[in-house]
Amino acid sequence: MCTFWLAHALALVGEVSRAREVFETALACANDVGLLAEEVTPTSGEALGNYPQAFSHIGLINAARAIHQGEQARHNR
Hints:
Elements (H helix, E strand, L loop, with lengths): L1 H11 L3 H12 L11 E2 L6 E2 L5 H23 L1
């Protein structure tokens, strides 16, 4: 969830490209059906903690929305 919070915050301050990069990196940690764990081991990618983790999915949705809005705003300028 914290990684999605980072992507969300980056989008809110106008760092939309960096936000998308962070978002896509975090999204790559989802399993084959799109579920996310509470944590992921950086070296192996192993899912740790609660699984599936609803808070991670809420962070994903909020970050995706902020990135989309940031991209739309940039496109409309």
